Predict the structure.
Amino acid sequence: MTATRGPVRAGVVAAVGFLVLDAVLLILAGVWADRPVLVVWGCVFGALAVLPVILWRRYLKHLDDVRTARRAMAEDIARLSEALRSEPRR
């Protein structure tokens, strides 16, 4: 997981930063221009800024599940290989 963790984390940080920046700018523009629709959209973008973090954590959990399954399969293969080697030939 450490090989792919950095680039994925950078993408998540960039996505969250972009959404937060959009949210702040929309809210400021809505307040200054007295346009409540912009404030609403700014709040929507602010709420959506949490979504990449949630999806990233879900992605990391899936990677851990895959790693656990691969280790279990490797142990099974080693056990089966050892059983085949130790079995006497006829």
The chain has one domain: 2-81. Helices lie at 2-32, 36-48, 51-86. The chain has a mean pLDDT of 89.
